[in-house]
Design the sequence.
């Protein structure tokens, strides 16, 4: 069964599988990130880790979330960098809004452009890894 192309821009065909892969990987990354933040909060509460250590751990958690989301969410072996980069951006947007809701306030420190660039880069690299090294991929 051939899936009809939704749009075509600059030689890139966007079909249902492409959009599904992107959204699936972004949502898996958000879920993984939420679980990771809960575990991190529990560890901080129990051990009293210094707050200066939390930010680097949080950045690593975001990158691992995007990688995990791409490895599980991307099912087709094509456009890995593009799918991953868009997934990373969507993950970053969703996570900013989710954590804004959990914090209950909107401030200048709520998000940073570095997060968006890191999400884009981590997503592109993760998408390449997922397409080339992931198991059970469709051509």
Sequence:
């Amino acid at each position: 069964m051939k899936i009809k192309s939704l749009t075509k821009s600059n030689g890139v065909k966007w079909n249902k599988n492409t959009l599904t892969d992107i959204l699936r990987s972004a949502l898996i990354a958000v879920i993984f990130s939420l679980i990771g933040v809960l575990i991190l909060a529990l560890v901080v509460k129990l051990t009293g880790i210094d707050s200066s250590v939390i930010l680097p751990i949080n950045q690593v958690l975001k990158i691992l979330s995007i990688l995990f989301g791409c490895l599980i969410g991307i099912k087709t072996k094509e456009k890995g960098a593009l799918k991953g980069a868009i997934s990373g951006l969507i993950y970053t947007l969703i996570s900013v809004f989710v954590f804004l809701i959990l914090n209950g306030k909107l401030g200048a420190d709520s998000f940073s452009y570095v997060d968006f660039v890191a999400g884009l880069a981590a997503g592109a690299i993760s998408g390449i890894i997922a397409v080339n090294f992931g198991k059970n991929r469709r051509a």
About this structure: The first helix runs from residue 16 to 47.
